[in-house]
Design a protein that fits this description.
The structure holds 2 protein chains of 2 kinds. Chain A is about 65% helix and about 10% strand. By secondary structure, chain A is α+β, with helices and mostly antiparallel strands. Classes of the chains: A alpha+beta, B alpha+beta.
Chain lengths: ~325, ~525
């Protein structure tokens, strides 16, 4: 049986030849993302700004009467509302921001809107599918814990990599992560997809998986640094990237298959979540090569890097493996 | 590589068998599940509210509410203590400003006696014997009682504890299945009710303090005084939104009323004459006696039925009510009367609770989410499985078996931990499937590489596994870090996602590294291949 080989043997792409251009592009896109977030802003969901979101399905019509609904809600005079389709054409979400701390007000608005919809649109088979209402206080807490969790995750991971490799690797990984997270923020500012708690979960997952790529490359860099003591650093990084290229592409593809299934077939409720993950998949692979590696060069990682500490790290790794019942080192 | 010890094979197989056994109940449809033998594990993976529909409600009590209530109670206690002291201690200029209770002792000579009398009232019932209130004497004759932080914390804790119980009783009365009611933090309660049709009714029920009082109407107050908010001595102004006589408030006597905590039962019923929905209540023995006395002494006078500080109605007492039961009327619908009956049966909340967060999902959307999520998961899995076989042949098959076992293990561990599967959790599942093969991709690519570099079959496999393992561990530990933070900071469905992610990382590393290794070892031993197709 002839097996599929996506990447031919012995590729020798000189990835880092483009490192300055790539770095410039990366920095520019980071800046562009920040500007986008600053100018357009994020389309923050009720999780983070407070207010309520009501999901309605109109069972008896093919398409939701968005215009009528907008007029009717405006007539209630309860403040600004955003009506969006999600999932099927007969499903809409009605979002109203009420960032005030008055809990009763938020609850009152929710019940007035749901009552209006179920009575006025009974003929169209209106069905309230979901209600999210969050008071200003809780949304503030959710926002701050979301930000903390992102920052802590990045720091904790950088520290772990510093312990397992060298401090330069930790710094490089941190920059790669900042790049991935910033670009995802930029993507949400650009598309104005709703940014809610699920997206924070997606970001944390992106952080985790983007690190997978970075670590696989780093691990190979460490191995090659010990093997080829005299090799030029840039050539060595290129070699390591090429050696892991088959795996990177293969894994990216399997992840992409899984994500595409979710994106195309999965429920509309988590569309933003899977969209963020898909973007993160590509951005993460890119940043491992073009963000993390050049930083290693600039921070002066070279043949000398793993001489003193390597033994310790390896002992620890060997110990860990023994404890977990693995085989002997070659 | 060839010497994969027998005990390892056996223990790995045992763990796998156990995992599969634990996963089975969650996979069986309910109709088949009833025939599942009883001696096997029965635990199932719970479905989150976003999948089965239901309401998640976060209630918050205001600490200031408890503090104010406590201050008011203290005032009454102090008044009582001073009145019953021998000789009686005259006090005046009572103020509750700034969260403190302060008053003047009219006779300077009695300040010490007053202090002595109050002292026992200010020590907490707690084991630590901490003071609930600090007593100070200012300007020789003014006594100031300041609540201590410890006392306030204790009071809030007790109030929330009672409130949680009351909430539980009220929800149980609704007859919903498997509600979850948990206290969270200092002053919050999380309520999760699966499969609920009408979250609005639930919110109203929980938002009602249900403090019922019966007080006599003060007929001496003029409408002008009431409108201006001036109450005659011994009376207070209470809002009365549906006052048939016009105006939005009436004056009622402060003392001589009855509180609604002296009830043994409350039921929704209909008024015999008007056929309007009403709530019938039955007093306990003490309450019944007092109610009889109140009505006997005040025939032909109106009394106010006050719920949560608002007058519901103020009917006339036509004749003494001696039987210990009464009717509450007040423009009810059948639903609102039933709700009030439930609230009265379960007792009053010691602290007003507000809904600060609500997430409700209708059962239809939940069903649709689970259907589409499962479909996406199945399609994704099948595509990944096919892709692995095309790429790695025999080794792809091993990776696939490991992947399927991994899925069963995740389900089994989740059932064992009684974990909840949410919609983002299903996404996490699908992602784990994509990522789980990463470990095998790493191993297989490494084996390819080692073969290319001229290593012999067994050695190439051996090196492939050991060299790839290092990166696999490092990568997955960072993922665990991210997942733990996700769990710590996330809420609701996001936590469900983090749980799936964490379990999935551990089981996928195990199945991808050890289980496939076992398959490969067995194959090598049996087939002793001369060529390696990978």
């Amino acid at each position: 049986m002839k097996l599929l080989k996506l990447v031919p043997d012995d590729t020798n792409f000189r990835f880092l030849r483009w490192r300055k251009i790539a770095m410039t592009i990366s920095l520019l896109s980071i800046i562009a993302s920040i500007v986008l977030v600053g100018v357009r802003g994020l389309n923050l969901g009720v999780d983070f700004v407070g207010g309520q979101m009501i999901q309605v399905t109109f069972d008896k019509v093919a398409e939701a009467p968005v215009a009528d609904l907008r007029d009717d809600i405006e007539a209630l005079n309860l403040g600004e509302s955003t009506i969006q389709r999600f999932g099927e054409p007969n499903q809409v979400s009605v979002r109203m921001r009420l960032s005030g701390d008055n809990v009763d007000e938020v609850n009152a608005v929710t019940s007035r809107v749901t009552q209006m919809i179920t009575t006025e649109y009974a003929a169209q088979g209106a069905r309230i599918d979901g209600v999210d209402s969050v008071s200003g206080k809780v949304s503030g807490e959710l926002l701050s814990t979301g930000v903390y969790s992102l920052v802590f995750a990045m720091m904790a991971i950088a520290v772990y990599i510093w312990f397992r490799f060298e401090w330069q690797f930790g710094v490089a990984a941190l920059f790669a992560l900042v790049h991935d997270v910033t670009l995802t923020f930029g993507f949400f500012a650009l598309t104005q997809l709703e940014f809610n708690l699920n997206i924070v979960a997606a970001l944390l997952t992106i952080i985790g998986y983007s690190l997978n790529d970075t670590i696989v490359v780093f691990d190979r860099v460490r191995e090659n640094l010990r093997k080829y003591r005299k090799m030029d650093m840039i050539a060595l990084l290129d070699l390591s990237t090429n050696e892991t290229l088959a795996r990177t592409i293969m894994t990216t593809l399997t992840m992409l298959i899984a994500l595409m299934a979710l994106l195309l077939i999965g429920p509309g409720v988590i569309f933003g979540f899977t969209a963020a993950m898909t973007l993160g998949l590509f951005v993460g692979s890119y940043s491992s090569v073009y963000m993390a590696n050049p930083i290693l060069v600039w921070l002066g990682v070279g043949a000398h890097s793993f001489v003193p500490h390597a033994t310790d790290a390896d002992k620890a790794a060997a110990k860990l493996k023994e404890g977990m019942g693995g085989g002997a080192q070659p | 590589m060839l010497d994969f010890p027998r005990w390892k094979t056996i223990s790995i197989s045992l763990v796998l068998a156990l995992g599969v056994l634990l996963a089975i109940p969650s996979l069986l449809p309910a109709s088949v599940g009833q025939y599942y033998p009883g001696f096997l594990p029965q635990a199932k993976v719970n479905l989150g509210l976003d999948l089965q529909g239901g309401s998640h409600i976060l209630l918050e009590g205001d600490p200031a509410d408890v503090a104010a209530q406590r201050l008011q109670n203290m005032e009454e206690t102090v008044r009582g203590a001073m009145r019953s002291a021998t000789p009686r201690i005259g006090i005046g200029d009572i103020s509750r400003e700034g969260g403190r209770l302060s008053f003047l002792v009219r006779d300077v000579g009695q300040v010490d006696a007053a202090r002595e009398a109050i002292l026992p009232l200010t020590t907490g019932a707690g084991l630590t014997g901490q003071r609930d209130w600090d007593i100070e004497v200012r300007d020789t004759s003014r006594i100031v009682l300041t609540p201590t932080d410890a006392g306030l914390t204790e009071a809030l804790d007790q109030a929330m504890e009672t409130a949680t119980e009351v909430v539980r009783k009220r929800i149980d009365e609704l007859g919903t299945r498997e509600p979850t009611i948990i206290r969270q933090g200092d002053n919050r309660i999380v309520v999760q009710v699966p499969g609920l049709d009408d979250p609005e009714a639930l919110k109203e029920l929980l938002g009602q303090t249900a403090e019922l009082e019966f007080k006599l109407v003060d007929l001496n107050a003029s409408p002008e005084d009431i409108a201006a908010g001036r109450a005659p001595v011994g009376s207070e102004i209470v809002p009365y939104p549906s006052n048939p006589a016009g105006g939005t408030a009436i004056a009622v006597r402060r003392l001589g009323g009855i509180r609604g905590d002296k009830l043994t039962n409350a039921q929704q019923s209909f008024d015999q004459q008007t056929n309007e929905p009403v709530v019938s209540i039955t007093f306990d023995r003490d309450g019944g006696t007092r109610f009889a006395r109140l009505t006997q002494q005040n025939v032909n006078k109106p009394f106010a039925i006050i719920l949560d500080g608002e007058v519901l109605s103020a009917p006339n007492i036509n004749e003494p009510i001696l039987g210990g039961s009464a009717q509450i009327s007040g423009n009810f619908t059948t639903e609102s009367a039933n709700q009030l009956a439930i609230a009265l049966r379960s007792g009053a909340l010691p602290i007003e609770l507000k809904v600060v967060e609500e997430r409700s999902v209708g059962p239809d959307l939940g069903a649709e989410s689970i259907q589409l999520g499962m479909l996406a998961g199945a399609v994704g899995t099948v595509a990944v499985l096919a892709f692995m076989i095309i790429t790695y042949g025999r080794f792809g098959v091993y990776a696939n078996i490991a992947l399927i076992l991994n899925i069963l293990l995740i389900l089994g561990v989740m059932a064992l931990m009684n974990a909840t599967l949410t919609l983002p959790g299903i996404a996490g599942f699908v992602l784990t499937i994509g990522a789980a093969v990463d470990a095998n991709v790493l191993i297989n690519e490494r084996i390819r590489e080692e073969r290319k570099n001229g290593r012999r079959i067994i050695q190439a496999i051996e090196v492939g596994y050991t060299e790839a393992s290092r990166a696999i561990y490092d990568a997955n530990i960072t993922n665990v870090i991210a997942a733990v933070l996700l769990f710590l900071f996330g809420s609701g469905p996001v936590r469900g996602f983090a749980v799936v992610l964490m379990i999935g990382i551990v089981t996928s590393v195990w199945t991808a590294v050890y289980v496939t290794r076992m398959f490969v070892a067995i194959w090598l031993k049996r087939a002793r291949p001369r060529e390696l197709v990978i």
